[in-house]
Design brief:
Structural class: alpha/beta
Shape: globular
Distance between the termini: 36 Å
Bound molecules: guanosine-5'-triphosphate, magnesium ion
Order of helices and strands: HEHEEHEHHEHEHE
Radius of gyration: 20 Å
CATH topology: Rossmann fold
Helix content: 25-40%
Largest sheet: 7 strands, mixed
Strand content: 15-25%
CATH architecture: 3-Layer(aba) Sandwich
Length: about 230
Amino acid sequence: MVLGLEFVYEIDQMAYKVDHEYDYLFKIVLIGDSGVGKSNILSRFTRNEFCLESKSTIGVEFATRTLQVEGKTVKAQIWDTAGQERYRAITSAYYRGAVGALLVYDITKRQTFDNVQRWLRELRDHADSNIVIMMAGNKADLNHLRAVSAEDAQVLAEKEGLSFLETSALEALNVEKAFQTILLDIYHIISKKALAAQEAASTPGIPHGTTINVANISGNYNKRTCCSN
Ligand SMILES: Nc1nc2c(ncn2[C@@H]2O[C@H](COP(=O)(O)OP(=O)(O)OP(=O)(O)O)[C@@H](O)[C@H]2O)c(=O)[nH]1
Ligand SMILES: [Mg+2]
């Protein structure tokens, strides 16, 4: 009998821990041409690792890192797939529930920058229209081989309404900042929506039982998660 109670207590504690591990879960997708450094950006951010001879990603991988954003514990779940079409997993599943995207090109390869438009189209076709997008010009350590100026990239970013940074997974330059910026932007959007919903709920004149949708950006806002599962 006592054992039974202890068991119930343990289960209860486990549930408590799981529930309180984080305040928000945000799914972020990595996109961009093959070889631009998506997987190394991910390993730098989640494990502080870099590999000079990394192989092309096959299928889908993901890694997580939990960090603080404006006093909230946010778990970033970052998905990575191959830039090359033939190695890619089903596109719609990859984008489902994503609230942020890091769109990477290689500053030493003009073609990867020219393809940014293609990736934006893919985002428009498959992702939530409110998705937060950061464009990253990676391999900034290879300045002597530069084929894309920061000015050109900035112009495109402004035209398309994206945030923009140059990064280096090798030198750990701006990788942290890129993700922090995405997470902060997502958090601000979500806080604003929650506030607007609160205000709408307390405004007299709204009939009882009216449904107010605050979940545009997240698959499941009530669970305080922004990842679909
Ligand atoms: N110099 C330099 N090399 C980098 C940097 N980031 C990645 N690389 C190198 O670029 C190559 C490709 O990196 P990956 O991270 O595998 O590229 P990817 O975008 O994941 O490629 P796919 O999985 O094929 O889509 C590897 O040889 C990396 O070592 C960087 O910031 N600077
Ligand atoms: Mg990869």
